[in-house]
Amino acid sequence: MQISHLATKANLELAWRRITTGGNQQYKRFFRDLYFAYEVALDENLEDLRQRLAGRIFEPQKPERIYLPKSSGLHRPLSLLHIEDQIVLQGFANLAAKCLHKKRAPLQFKVVFSNILESDTSIFFFRRWQETYAAFQRKIAKHYDSGMRWVADFDLAAFYDTVSHELLMKTIYPRTATSDDMKWFLNCLLTWSSEKAASLHRHGLPQGPLASDFLAECFLLPIDLSLKSYNGYTRYVDDVRLFGRTEDEVRAAVIKLERRCRERGLIPQSGKFSIKRAQSVEDAMGMLPSIADPQRTERTESGAIPIAQARRVFLSSIGGKPYRVTDKTRLRYVLYRAEPDSHILKLVLKLLPHHPEHADAFFNYLAFFGFRKPILQICLNLVVKSPYPFVRGEAWHVLARYLQTPIALDVAVRGDLKSRAISIAKDRRSEYIMEKWGACHFLAVLEAISGTHLSRFLWYQPALLQSLLANILPDRALGAGEAADYYLRRSTFEPGLSICGRIHGLGLTLGTFGLADSELPSQVRNTLCQLGVIPNRGASVDPIGEILQARYRLSPAKPWHALLGVEYVYALGLLKEAEASFESGRSFWLACQNTFNHAIFLALQRYLALIGHPLTCTTKNKLGQLVEYGVLLDRNGRFSKRCPEIADVFRDMNDRRNCLPVSHPYEKKTAIRCRYLKAKERNQFVQRLLSAYQAFAALMP
Predict the structure, then answer these.
(1) Which of 259, 224, 225, 256 is nearest to 238 (CA)?
(2) Strand ranges for 4-74 from DSSP E
(3) Rounded Cα distance, 90 and 77, in Å
(4) pTM over 0.85
(5) Which one of 42, 85, 484, 624 is CB 3.0 to 4.6 Å from 81, fit for a cystine?
(6) Contact, 540 vs 532, CB < 8 A?
(7) What is the pLDDT of residues 140-153, one digit of tens each?
(8) Residue in 81, 92, 86 with CA at minimum distance from that of residue 7
């Protein structure tokens, strides 16, 4: 392994694209705004990173960790790596993928079915997990149908935490002596995997990034190669199935597998181990999810389940007296896709205290409701009594939203919550990061409502936590001597990067904070230059206008800054992602370009409403929630009838986006399999956008 290979421009760009196109949505939700902000000056930022790597002055940073409750009562740690640490880790995974391709390729879709790689140059790191998991299930069925009815379920305890760094490097580079460059990367792994600086250890992978998923596969490769000759060996991540015609045949394979695992320091989980004679294909599959995992996919407009169906599926996922979850897959499927329903809500509120492992799904569903007293009561109870920081944090986010409902919290309750939130914000224990996020969210909203100076409790929070709170900082906090001042002065760039969009949108300058551009981290300086906050070659720039001019021949007569305001950075990030995938990922281009269209359409509607224009649409419902994009573009709507040149292509792109395999397996009305975007379709959309964007610009300020 050589840093010079890791730090090439092509490898860093590919690493970035694979991070931003990854399907690990549960992880990416913590970084989405930062990704967009980093993308604004991507070329400059990656060049700076490349130079620091080549000059051996790049230093890994300690990640923040959140702890997701498990049904066992324990936790699954999620490591929030800093942005450039993620790029370096992914860049190394890119190199590892090339090194092990010849060894691993013959095993894929035969004995190994998890984290199957795309091509070396693809901006997508893995094939769609739905495709590979379906192949895993078909393999199990094939074993069963061939008469291999005996099956052993073999799982590893704390798999990611027990991966040896030295053994991992020897697996990837078996003939290479440990060099200074290898020692440097081993030090990176040491920093990213250790719980605290005082407890450094040389094992474990940071859970969350896609790169870690592949490095875990690399670590298991010698075991796969050793067992590949056994016909019944089948693996998906650390879930191993051993099939055979007799019990003794399976037991012999289990003994071999256990030895190979222990040789690599892996510990079999005895509590989950079993050998049985399967009575059916379903029995052979065991507890395998058959419905898409909502943590790796996002809800789309056409993905909502009708209420009657949602109730039926939800009820089939629970049982017993009192109710408990019996089918986690069905439960989560409904909670991520169902429309708000009072009947399901009552059941969710009963289940939430007893199933913290599904807290993310429960709170996702609660977010679709406006103020409800039962939701308020359970959240007030959870912030005090729940033993899980993750659950308490999610409850704080709900209470922060309820602050904006005057009847929700009386003065006494608000005062008690304020005192509790301040106490949490002062707590320096790192394991409470999720709770601190929720409590600081509450304090920031309370300052905006009451005028009390509470954002000062954000001044000395961890850098990644500060960046998570950037978009809800009250405007007062974006001044000299306030939270934004502390953000910009930090040596860690994420806090400053997270507020670049708001600095630009509010028309602030570095003079507002008494700062010179030389005092800023390079990533923040690069972004502010791109936005025109810092003079760049003597003139302000409009990157969105420049991109639209180059691709769609749109005249740069009107600045997009005026229309988008604080949303400029977000929209620019979307457009840059679309441009980056124009040739190499047509379907991803459509998804990003469609989301960009949605963002600028909402911005245009805000402007039209402000001036009382007759083309104004109602963009929010009675609960304050955004009306679905497809509804806004309805053919019979006011805007569509008056501006068909814009609405028709925006609608068609949105409809086509909802018919991509990454959105749904089948089209809703025809049940035909969804298909990826073809080059001809993309080019047709581009031609239609040429005139659509011209008409759109005519309506802009």
Answers:
(1) 224
(2) 64-69
(3) 19
(4) no
(5) 85
(6) yes
(7) 999 999 999 999 98
(8) 92
